[in-house]
Amino acid sequence: MWAAFYLEIVIGIPLREFGIVPRTLHGLVGIFVAPLLHGDILHLISNTIPLLFLGVVLFFFYNKIGGAVFFRAYFWTNALVWLFARPANHIGASGVVYSLAFFLIFFGIFRRDFLSLFISVVVIILYGSVFYGVLPTDPRVSWESHFAGALVGIGSAITFSNKKTVS
């Protein structure tokens, strides 16, 4: 994300054009690169910090399923945005952030073991505002990415909560 931001801002390569533009051939590339693209430094920082925290929690505590959960958060969230979002250029990693947050919150609820419930509570305390982010409040913000991420995170939590070995 930071390298893409550097290329765009410092060198002047217009990478933002490659965001997710729903239901267009050109926008398909955004499924793979949109989370790497950000509008400004504040947007980048506001995605970097939770992505690092939630990613570390995911891979540290659930290392056996971490890769699969992250792949779903990255790919399926963006695929849903491409399929269903309003026509706009959707960029940023917030869909991935929402997916990881919702996974960590709901995994504990579905799994019902002490560690997973503890992680759920910590994530709710730190990132409980994600529940509001799935609502369309600001036309400049891709609430569709947030909503798609929430769906993918909850779906992943349901899928993996029944697995015997997760860490």
TrEMBL record:
<keyword id="KW-0378">Hydrolase</keyword>
<protein>
    <submittedName>
        <fullName>Rhomboid family intramembrane serine protease</fullName>
    </submittedName>
</protein>
<dbReference type="GO" id="GO:0006508">
    <property type="term" value="P:proteolysis"/>
</dbReference>
<keyword id="KW-1133">Transmembrane helix</keyword>
<keyword id="KW-0645">Protease</keyword>
<feature type="transmembrane region" description="Helical">
    <location>
        <begin position="91"/>
        <end position="110"/>
    </location>
</feature>
<dbReference type="InterPro" id="IPR035952">
    <property type="entry name" value="Rhomboid-like_sf"/>
</dbReference>
<keyword id="KW-0472">Membrane</keyword>
<feature type="transmembrane region" description="Helical">
    <location>
        <begin position="117"/>
        <end position="135"/>
    </location>
</feature>
<keyword id="KW-0812">Transmembrane</keyword>
<dbReference type="InterPro" id="IPR022764">
    <property type="entry name" value="Peptidase_S54_rhomboid_dom"/>
</dbReference>
<feature type="transmembrane region" description="Helical">
    <location>
        <begin position="41"/>
        <end position="62"/>
    </location>
</feature>
<dbReference type="GO" id="GO:0008233">
    <property type="term" value="F:peptidase activity"/>
</dbReference>
<feature type="domain" description="Peptidase S54 rhomboid">
    <location>
        <begin position="29"/>
        <end position="161"/>
    </location>
</feature>
<dbReference type="Pfam" id="PF01694">
    <property type="entry name" value="Rhomboid"/>
</dbReference>
